[in-house]
Amino acid sequence: MRKNFVVIGLGRFGGSICKELTEQGMEVMAIDSNEARVNEFSIIASHAVVGDTTDDAVIKSLGLRNFDHVIVAIGDDIQASILTTLMLKENGVKKVTVKAQNDYHGKVLSKIGADVIVHPERDMGIRIAHKLASNSILDYLELSDEHSIVEIEANERIGGHSIIDLDIRAKYGVNIVAIKRRSSIIVSPQATEIIQYKDVLIVIGADNDINRLEKKML
Ligand code: ADP
Q1: Which of 132, 136, 130 is nearest to 217 (CA)?
Q2: Containing structural domain, residue 14
Q3: How many domains does the chain have?
Q4: Which of 25, 87, 141, 142 ranks highest by number of CB atoms within 10 Å?
């Protein structure tokens, strides 16, 4: 089903969300108070509109409450981000995702009813630090404070062994949810699947269990 979105704030973050959603075939209304930014997006988004969304009349006249999902990607102007979010929720927008600049901003956003709060710079920093600190972790996605999904490259020690041979679930309490092998991907591999050297294992589990597995792989 084609969903319709509004992206408010067309900086680096909002701009890339707008482009990606459009490429995914979604309908996107792009809004920014800066006319030059709006002009840049007029050929990308379904509609591109100049407007200051801290103004209640702008939110009402654009009918934003009729959209499935509104993304507030206003950058440095925390006051404008908070006011916009508050007004969107007061106007009955069902789903509002907001980019937070810092933890305090995030706390205020959750108090005023933002449905999803994202911290892209902080999260990307964490992700990159995990990759930098480990020899075998290729990518990292935090699921909760204690659980993650990681991509681990299979070394010679485990290459040539099946998942059941390695007894990964019983020994480490983690699950291999997929294996990337060159250009193909094996989703939910069978226990009998033989892991090949340089396969990329996509593993889900508790952080300390993943750490144990990672140490074993070194
Ligand atoms: P990023 O860090 O993602 O690059 P920026 O701070 O460069 O973010 O971009 C935020 C965008 O939000 C700017 O294009 C700015 O014009 C827009 N913006 C700021 N305040 C408002 C507002 N009240 N209404 C609409 N757009 C706004």
Answers
A1: 136
A2: 4-118
A3: 2
A4: 87
Q: Is the CB of 39 under 6 A from ligand 1?
A: no
Pocket flag, ligand 1, residue 76 (CB < 6 Å): yes
Convert the pLDDT of each residue in 106-143 to its tens digit. Answer: 999 999 999 999 999 999 998 888 888 877 788 888 89
Same domain, 133 and 71: no
Query: pLDDT tens digit string along 80-113?
Result: 999 999 999 999 999 999 999 999 999 999 999 9
Mutation test residue for ligand 1: of 6, 8, 18, 33, the one with most atoms within 8 Å of CB: 33
- In the chain, which ranges are E strands? 4-8, 27-32, 47-50, 69-72, 96-99, 116-118, 137-142, 147-153, 175-181, 184-187, 200-206
Could you tell me which of 135, 151, 166, 128 has the C-alpha nearest to residue 204?
A: 151
Of 87, 118, 149, which residue constitutes the final position of a domain? Answer: 118
Q: How far apart are CA 83 and CA 46, in angstroms?
A: 25
Look up the CATH number of the domain holding residue 151: 3.30.70.1450
Q: Tell me, what's the ipTM?
A: 0.94
State the pLDDT at residue 218: 53
Where does residue 103 rank: exposed (0-12), middle (13-18), buried (19+ CB within 10 A)? exposed
Contact partners, residue 103, CB within 8 Å, separation at least 6:
119
Same domain, 92 and 162: no
User: Ligand 1, atom 11: nearest CA belongs to which residue?
Assistant: 9
